[in-house]
Design goal:
By secondary structure, the protein is α+β, with helices and mostly antiparallel strands. Strands 1, 2, 3, 4, 5 and 6 form a six-stranded mixed β-sheet that branches. A four-stranded antiparallel β-sheet has the order 10-11-8-12, covered by helices on one side. α1 (about 70-80) runs parallel beside α2 (about 105-120). The protein folds into two domains: about 5-175, Ribosomal Protein S5, domain 2; about 180-290, GHMP kinase, C-terminal domain (Alpha-Beta Plaits), CATH 3.30.70.890. A hairpin with a 5-residue loop joins β1 and β2 (about 30-45). The chain is globular, with a radius of gyration of 19 Å. The chain has helices spanning about 70-80, 105-120, 125-135, 145-150, 190-195, 215-220, 225-230, 235-245, 265-280; strands at about 5-20, 30-45, 50-55, 90-95, 155-160, 170, 170-175, 180-185, 210, 250-255, 260-265, 285-290. It is built from nine helices and twelve strands. Helices cover about 30% and strands about 30% of the residues.
C-alpha cells in the first residue's frame, strides 16, 4: 500500500494592500504585506495510478471540481520542470473559506508544490528555490508568496508588482499584534469585480519598510476595502462591531475577498471579540487565529 503524506496549507492575510496603478496588460500594480496564520487546510496526498483531487469539510462544496488550484499546479509542475508526470490522490479538508481573500486555494497549491520540490530537489540552493518561486507567478498572483512561506523562506513578505512576476521579499517584523479574529459574512467576492469597482483610484507608491512595525501598518490600508463594501454592504456591519471595541490595533479587509480581520496584542481581548461576534448571531463565519511570527 502506498504511503500517504499529510500537508498543511496556511491561510494568508494582507496586512496592507495598496494599488499604485494599472499596466498596459490590464493588471494592477500592487504593494502588499502578506502574513500567514494558524488557520489551515489539511491535505492527504497518496501516490496512485491516476491523479484525482477531492474536497471535504465545511467549504468543500464551493470548489469547482477539476478547476481547483492543485490540479492546475500538478500539471504545471511536471511540465515546467521537464519531469515525467507522477500521479497522486489528493484529499483536501477545507477549513479556509473560498473566494474570501484568505488564499486557501493558492495555499493548497503552494503546499503541494513545496512538497514536490523538496522531494525532487533536496539539495537545491536558496537561489534556485527563489527562481522556482518566481516562475510560479503564472499560476496566480499569490502563489509565489505562499510558496516562499511553505518552503520556509520567510513568514512575512512584501509583494511588489502585479504578482505575476513572482516578486516577493521576506520582511523583518517587530512588535506586531498577532492575535486575529477573522470574520466572513458568507458572501463570495470575485477579484475581478472588486478591482473593477476601484474606478481608477490609486495609492502613491511606498518605500518597502526595512522593519515592518505596527506604526507602518496603522498608516497604511487596503484600498480595496471601499470597492468591496459597495459590492457587499454586509461587511460594513462587521466593521461597526469592530469599532465598538476600543482595544484593537487595526482592522482590515484581506485581499479582494469578503473576509475581514481585527488585530489585537492581547489574546483575551481577541477571545472576547470572537465571543461577542458569535453572540451577534448573523450567520457569519468567525475564526480565532494567530499570525505565524518568530
Amino acid at each position: 500500500m502506498s504511503q500517504s503524506f499529510h500537508l498543511t496549507a496556511h491561510a494568508k492575510v494582507n496586512l496592507m494592500l495598496h494599488v499604485t496603478g494599472k499596466g498596459p496588460d490590464g493588471y494592477h500594480n500592487l504593494q502588499s504585506v502578506f502574513a500567514f496564520t494558524t488557520l489551515e487546510d489539511h491535505l492527504h496526498i497518496t501516490p496512485t495510478a491516476t491523479t484525482s483531487v477531492s474536497f471535504e469539510g465545511e467549504f468543500a462544496g464551493a470548489v469547482r471540481s477539476g478547476k481547483d488550484s492543485i490540479t492546475q499546479a500538478l500539471s504545471w509542475y511536471f511540465s515546467h520542470m521537464n519531469l515525467p508526470p507522477r500521479h497522486y490522490r489528493v484529499i483536501v479538508h477545507k477549513n479556509i473559506p473560498v473566494a474570501a481573500g484568505l488564499g486557501g486555494g493558492t495555499s493548497d497549491a503552494a503546499a503541494v508544490l513545496a512538497w514536490l520540490y523538496r522531494q525532487d530537489y533536496p539539495q537545491s540552493s536558496e537561489a534556485q528555490a527563489w527562481e522556482f518561486i518566481k516562475n510560479t507567478g503564472v499560476l496566480g498572483a499569490d502563489v509565489p508568496v505562499s510558496l516562499a512561506f511553505h518552503l520556509g523562506l520567510g513568514q512575512v513578505f512584501w509583494l511588489e508588482g502585479s504578482g505575476r512576476e513572482g516578486n516577493c521579499t521576506p520582511l523583518k517584523a517587530e512588535g506586531l499584534g498577532r492575535q486575529l479574529v477573522l470574520v466572513n459574512p458568507g458572501i463570495e467576492l470575485s477579484t475581478a469585480s472588486v478591482f473593477s469597482a476601484l474606478d481608477g483610484r490609486f495609492d502613491p507608491p511606498l518605500e518597502r519598510p526595512q522593519v515592518l512595525n505596527q506604526k507602518f501598518l496603522q498608516h497604511s490600508r487596503n484600498i480595496l476595502q471601499g470597492p468591496a463594501l459597495k459590492l457587499a454592504p454586509e461587511i460594513g456591519k462587521i466593521y461597526l462591531m469592530f469599532m465598538l471595541d476600543q482595544s484593537f490595533h487595526y482592522f482590515r479587509l484581506s485581499g479582494s475577498g469578503s473576509s475581514s480581520f481585527v488585530v489585537y496584542k492581547d489574546r483575551r481581548q481577541a477571545d472576547a471579540m470572537a465571543e461577542k461576534l458569535a453572540k451577534n448571531n448573523r450567520g457569519w463565519w468567525i475564526q480565532r487565529t494567530e499570525l505565524i511570527l518568530r
